[in-house]
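To whoever is covering the structure queue this week,

Two jobs came back overnight. Logging them here so there's a record in the thread.

Job A:
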Amino acid sequence: MTQEIRLFGAIAVRPAVLPLISRFETATAHRVALKWELNPVVKKQIEAGEPFDLVITNPNLVQDLAALGRVKAGSEVAFGRIAMGMATKAGSRPLDIGSVEAFKHALKSAGSIAYASDGTSGGYFSGLLERLGIADEVKPKLVTISGGQTAAAVGRGEAELGVVPVTSILAAAPEVMLVGPFPAELQSYIDFAIGISADATDAEATRQLSEFLTSTAVDDLLAAKGVERC
């Protein structure tokens, strides 16, 4: 019987990976069970014994899990990177964030800004506010959103703007639109890597899934969802 491959991935890559899974299942007859959490939660749960076959998370976290013996040594491969972007509700007035000053002005002018405080993107954004010297002015406007729902919260009207990986913004359409990526001077790409479990139930099937997700055949599909190959 075909074993089910357990994929445990970061929420930010979910919109890009989901459309690929049915294609893989059709091509191979394997089945893939999916679980998604914020990057730090992925690592924490695997450390605590969460069973998985393949993980997609930040490269440093994959390396940490390999050092702990949870990820098979030498199985790590680069998956891609995702840019940080700004979201607003569909139909909102056009907003300029093409320069550092325009970006700062947009944040200072907004009534509320949603962000994922517990995720990789939220950590970067908090530090960025300090670096730009606008933390004291902007922090009272911040709306903490958990569970990868930042872009959706903007669509529901819970915040005027959202700062979140571009993949999540594109996935929240048509209720949400991408204002644009952060200006180049402020951009921080979130890198992702794939690792195979040291205890994979079907090592060969899991290797096939890893190779499929990193193959050039899916580059265009990933790019359309906001994932850039490194």
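Job B:
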Amino acid sequence: MTYSGAVKVGGPADVHELPDLMISKVAVGPMNNNAYLLRCRATDEQLLIDAAADAATLLNLIGDDGIASVVTTHRHGDHWGALAEVVEATGARTYAGVHDAEGIPVATDVLVADGDTVTVGRVTLTARHLVGHTPGSIALIYDDPHGHAHVFTGDCLFPGGVGNTWGDPKAFEQLIDDVQHKIFEQLPDETWVYPGHGNDTTLGAERPHLAEWRERGW
């Protein structure tokens, strides 16, 4: 089956099979949060991005192999609602952005700053700090040596625009600047974008609209 990234709460995971990494996407909870399970093909080690809303669904996805780590993209409660239960069940090490960890009521084992790396087995992800949606949001970039890049953007980039900045012009300017300079200017059009809610997209699909987003202010 071809991966589309279109998932529904209560529905099955969609699996993106890459040469070195398997990415399983599920939607959970009343806010249609996306959670992503990454599995290194060489070692079978697993990492979860955003333990959102529904521990039972996430633990079923994780399976008997467990997870080594869980990364929380930002401090908003819909993205860590199942974190305590998942960590208790798996013993996973927790990661979060250095400026958002204080807003997450589960202890963060590893504080992540811009440019830091997070590993799952033999696969390396690079964190980018994106300011505006929250003070310490992080995106995770996997630069596939066999193909194009993949970026997990939390709530900082979606199909059709950047994340919510609640009408704050300064926060919007910070967010769109960071997304443009740290994501769009660093990665090619083929880069696959996995957002915190809803459908996936590519940087190529969104790039032509950057000026339009700036002009409208959201």
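Note for Job B: Helices lie at 55-62, 83-90, 169-184, 203-206, 210-216.

Please reply-all if you pick these up so we don't duplicate work.
Q.
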